[in-house]
TrEMBL record:
Keywords: Disulfide bond, Endonuclease, Glycoprotein, Hydrolase, Membrane, Metal-binding, Nuclease, Transmembrane, Transmembrane helix. GO terms for biological process: DNA catabolic process. The lineage of its organism: Eukaryota, Fungi, Fungi incertae sedis, Cryptomycota, Cryptomycota incertae sedis. This is Phospholipase C/P1 nuclease. One of its GO terms (molecular function) is hydrolase activity, acting on ester bonds. It comes from Rozella allomycis (strain CSF55). Pfam families: S1-P1_nuclease. The keyword Lipid metabolism does not apply.
Length: 303
């Protein structure tokens, strides 16, 4: 399959500059990148499942955040993160047995994948699972959704461009927004494309021996999500013994970056739009690209 993100990303960036609310940019990028990597048949299935007013994927990617405060969806709020028990430098880890006793982003991805891949489920349940999956894969790659520090970054404030924000806001939005404005549309497209090329060989890997990208590129739906299938079949046995179950691996990687690399390591009063931005912006973009490719990998495999 020929991978060309330029058209979709160009459209997306035009749209991003029209977005007035904070917080959606990362998810919109993940959705747009994933859509560009879908197989034609998968794309058709996805579009048929998505409500008309939630298309394309860049729009669908924000649905779960838009509904989570509504009474009917309050149950879904714990699905957006996983509460890890981090205490750096002594302890940084994602432990499913203690961090996800009720519900969490990892369990949400597994459950949504299970429902979505079952054609006997109702269209409504599959539709909401698709909307949830598109969003939660993004959340699992965004900072403070897999980090047990500072109440998800909401209780810790930082200065950015002279104004105070929560660290959650700064990581979800401000740093990436600065990137978009600084680089400019056409150069930003080049940055994204080159990063996709670099990450493709790694991004959707479920287990060391799998090569999800190969499946994406060659149109062959091979064993991309074999680990998901194994997991669903052998839930409890795998839970504690298998280090390479996809969402576990993804969550662990994000947690390690933010917990051990000092996401909260800055001087009070320091403007985080300067050196701090330089230190972390590459990681933000990398996780967005990883999320987009991994989401496409899941959908290509199960739909
Ligand atoms: Zn969310």
């Amino acid at each position: 399959m020929k991978i060309d993100v330029s058209r979709v990303v160009f459209f997306l960036i035009l749209r991003i500059y029209c977005v007035t609310a904070w917080g959606f940019i990362g998810h919109e990028l993940v959705g747009a990148l994933a859509q560009e990597l879908l197989l034609p048949s998968t794309l058709e299935t996805v579009m048929n499942l998505l409500p008309v007013n939630e298309r394309p994927l860049s729009k669908a990617a924000t649905w779960a955040d838009r509904v989570k405060s509504k009474q009917a969806y309050k149950w879904s709020q714990p699905l957006h993160y996983i509460n890890t028990n981090d205490d750096p430098p002594r302890y940084c880890n994602v432990d499913f047995s203690t961090d996800c006793t009720q519900n969490c982003a990892i369990k949400a991805i597994i459950n949504a994948t299970d429902i979505l891949s079952n054609s006997k489920e109702t269209k409504l349940r599959r539709q909401e699972s698709l909307l949830m999956l598109i969003h939660i894969v993004g959340d699992l790659h965004q900072p403070f959704h897999v980090l047990g520090l500072g109440e998800g970054g909401n209780s810790v404030k930082g200065t950015f461009g002279g104004n105070k924000f929560s660290m959650h806001q700064i990581w979800d939005t401000m740093l990436l927004d600065k990137r978009l404005k600084l680089i400019g549309k056409s150069d930003y497209l080049d940055v994204l494309k080159s990063k996709i090329a670099i990450e493709l060989s790694y991004a959707a890997t479920c287990a060391p021996e799998d090569n999800a990208v190969h499946a994406l590129i060659t149109d062959t739906k091979t064993s991309l999500l074999a680990c998901f299938t194994d997991y669903l079949k052998q839930y409890f046995r795998y839970m504690f013994s298998h280090n390479y179950i996809c969402p576990f691996k993804w969550a662990y990687e994000v947690n390690q970056y933010h917990c051990t690399d000092g996401t909260l390591n800055f001087t009070q009063g320091e403007d985080l739009s300067l050196d701090y931005y330089d230190r972390h912006i590459e990681a933000i973009e990398r996780f967005i690209i990883l999320a987009g490719v991994r989401l496409a990998g899941i959908l290509n495999q199960i739909l």
